[in-house]
Amino acid sequence: MDERILVVDDEPSVVATCVRTLTRAGYVAEGVGDSDIALEQLAQEVFDLLLTDIRMPGRDGLELLAMAKELDPHLSVVMITGYGTMDDALQAIRLGAQGFLLKPFEPGELVDAVEDSLRRRALLRDSLRLQTLLPLLEINESLRVTDGALSLTQRVLEVALRETGASRLWLTMRGHSSHELVTAASVGSLTDRSLLPETMLEQAFETGEPMWVEADGRLHSDPAEARRVVALSRPLSMKGQVIGVLNAEKGPDLPPFSQISLELLSLLSGQLAIAIENVELHQRQQALRAFNEDIIQTMTNGLVVVDDTAQVTVLNKAAAILLGYDSTEVLGQPLRDAIPGASALADVIEATLHHPDEPPLQHPQNEVNVLHRDSNPLPLAVSASTLRDGDGTVTGVVCLFEDLSEAKALEVERRRLDRLAALGE
């Protein structure tokens, strides 16, 4: 265990007993006897749990609870009371307390209350992770955004800003010049002076290692040494290359990042890099698909593609003109049903689909006769081959065909001329 607990009670014996019991249980516990001192520590350091008496001189436990939650909304709080009323308990619950201890209590009761509160905190942390990463988990929807990776990044940063309590979150990337750093996406308010030195961003790009800034300005590359983090830079890596750096910082009047917030930002940087890669891959696939579609639609030869159930999935413009049918009349149906006059063409496609493992020589270029929509005969040269996925499973058939009408007419004319030439001799 390395959870840090702050004990606050105006009775020194209670503070000493709680600190000793929690230390023995494996926690890092500190104790103070005054609410104002406790607030100073909460503003300067990161604690996982606050254990405080409800009734104390000066600022009572309820007021301390309210102000502590303003400093760190994720802080777990357990209240101690010896004579608290139901009104006190309800007020404490409304302010965000997770547990109660009634004086006098046994050491085991104290440890149980702390463990239960920290367990709830862990559940909250998981819930916050899910909320923060929801735009990434909804990747299928996110991939449809028109602005691509940067639009997705902006959405994620907006959620993360709310959940981590940061003043500003931004993504730094290389500009057109490899030496230029630019802000690709940003949320939150700009401070007069960033807590992150420019040399730190350069170092994050060069080393691929995260960096943390403490409230006193010290820089750390080891997370174990960073306790009061007010700013950080986390590189986003893709295939061993740093593609950007996720930066976060707190304003001058805000407490350091909580441990939950630091964990969220760590998880976010890794998942955001994956999401950006997926978006860019999706966009490349879309561009390639559009390019291929342009090629298919501008081909002079007819092209038909069917899936593994023999239903037409592609009918290019040349095929539609040759056969006399609009693609909307054919797509999603078996070719044999959609175009009755093309049964010979359907025979070739279905033979290729149902006997995919026969040697290529068994399926030479076929010459078939079909009927145009206007019932005119149409001779076609046909070539068909199977489509397979990465595992080799047949997923369909692609069929190319060419109108032989002109070639046939030329052949007839050539033969006529040959006969005339022979008669002339």
Write down the Rg.
36 Å
Q: How many DSSP helices?
A: 13
Task: Give the % helix.
Answer: 40-55%
The total count of strands amounts to 16
Structural class: alpha+beta
Order of SSEs: EHEHEHEHEHHHEEHEEEEHEEHHHEEEH
Write down the overall mean pLDDT.
Answer: 82
Q: In whole angstroms, how far apart are the ends?
A: 109 Å
Q: What ranges have pLDDT less than 50 throughout 5 or more consecutive residues?
A: 142-146, 360-364
The side-by-side strand order for the widest beta sheet comes to 7-6-11-10-8-9
Work out the strand percent.
Answer: 15-25%
Could you say which overall geometry the principal axes of the C-alpha atoms support? elongated
Give a quick precis of the structure.
By secondary structure, the chain is an alpha+beta fold. It is built from 13 helices and 16 strands.
SSE inventory with pairings:
Blueprint: E1 4-8, H1 12-24, E2 28-32, H2 35-44, E3 49-53, H3 61-71, E4 76-81, H4 86-95, E5 99-102, H5 107-137, H6 139-142, H7 148-164, E6 168-174, E7 181-188, H8 198-207, E8 211-214, E9 219-220, E10 229-238, E11 241-249, H9 259-298, E12 302-307, E13 312-315, H10 317-323, H11 335-338, H12 343-354, E14 366-371, E15 377-388, E16 394-403, H13 405-424
Helix pairs in contact: 2-3, 3-4, 5-7, 5-9, 7-9
